[in-house]
Every structure is written in C-alpha cells, then in structure tokens.
Amino acid sequence: MVEYEVIHFNVSGLKSDLDVLSFLSDDLFEKGIVKKSFKKAIQDREKEFATGLLVNGIGFAIPHTDIEHVNESQIAILTLKNSVEFYQMGDNTTKVPVRIVFMLALKEAKSHLEMLQKLVELMQNNESIDQILSLEDSEKSKQEMIKILKTNNVI
C-alpha cells in the first residue's frame, strides 16, 4: 500500500495546498495508481472538506477522494521543508501550517475511515513523528518510513 516511489522527504518549492495536492496527484497519475480525474476530485474535495490537522504542534494533511478515481490503493507521503497552509478539518476558516501529508488513494470506501483512524494514532506518537520529520530523501529513509508505518500498524 506504500511504495518507495511515492514517498518524498523534505520537499521545498511548494507554496500552497493546491501545489502540494498537484505534486502528489501528478506523481500518482504518472505511476498509473490513479485516474486523470483524481487530481480535480481531490482538489475539489479539499476545498469543500478540508483535511488539515494540528496534533501536538505539528501540522498534518490527509487529502483523499472517492474510490472511482483510483486504480490501485496507495498512500503517498510527503514531508515539507517549509510548512504549507491547509485549512483545518471541520473548519474552513482556520489554517494549519502543514509539514506532513498523507494522500490516500484507496479502492475501498470502508478503507478510508479505517486508514484515517490509523494515521491519527500515528500522528499522536511524538517519537515516530520526530523520526519522520528527520528523514532525508534516500532509499534508506524510505525503508525507515515503511518500518515506522508498520510499527504503528498503519500498513
């Protein structure tokens, strides 16, 4: 459910939530994981139902959309060198400075809620989050990320 190719650490140059959504959506589309419709669908959903969360002082976003835009289940992961503002989940007026993004491309509708719960549990594990934020873009770091996800029962 998580492939090395869709894990990106310490990315710079992305200025807005739309930049982040486009970057990850394009990556998933180029790899055949999602359909062309995924990008617009995830951007539209983010406008209507924001996914920013502030947990223990760290900003996260968990963008996701409907299953009909997905070819195969995958979680794309992105850490940002500089935070990007996303609107807070349940409150489209408050912005959250996001450093970690988990973009969900899931084939089963019931998987979304389950995965969201697992990711929120991970977000509350300060030690694991500190580890994630310290990872650089390398194969070893990507392996470490997979290990963190497995240790925290995300995958």
Helix-strand blueprint:
Layout: E1 7-11, H1 17-30, H2 37-48, E2 52-55, E3 58-61, E4 74-88, E5 91-105, H3 109-123, H4 126-134, H5 139-151
Parallel strand pairs: 1-4, 3-5
Antiparallel strand pairs: 2-3, 4-5
Helix pairs in contact: 1-2
Strand order of the largest sheet: 1-4-5-3-2
**Contiguous helical run count:** 5
CA-atom Rg in angstroms: 14 Å
Shape: globular
Fraction of helical residues: 40-55%
CATH superfamily: Mannitol-specific EII, Chain A
Order of helices and strands: EHHEEEEHHH
Number of domain modules: 1
Poorly predicted runs are none
Q: What is the CATH third-level topology name? A: Mannitol-specific EII, Chain A
CATH architectural label: 3-Layer(aba) Sandwich
Beginning-to-end CA distance, first to last residue:
7 Å
Largest sheet: 5 strands, mixed
| Beta-strand percentage range | 25-35%
The total strand number stands at 5
CATH class: Alpha Beta
Structural account:
It is a single chain. This protein has 155 residues and is of the alpha/beta class. The chain has one domain (4-151): Mannitol-specific EII, Chain A (3-Layer(aba) Sandwich). It contains 5 helices and 5 strands. Helix 1 (17-30) runs antiparallel to helix 2. The longest helix has 15 residues, at 109-123. The model has no long low-confidence stretch (mean pLDDT 95).
Briefly, what is this?
41% of the residues lie in helices and 28% in strands. It has 5 helices and 5 strands. The protein has helices spanning 17-30, 37-48, 109-123, 126-134, 139-151, and strands spanning 7-11, 52-55, 58-61, 74-88, 91-105.
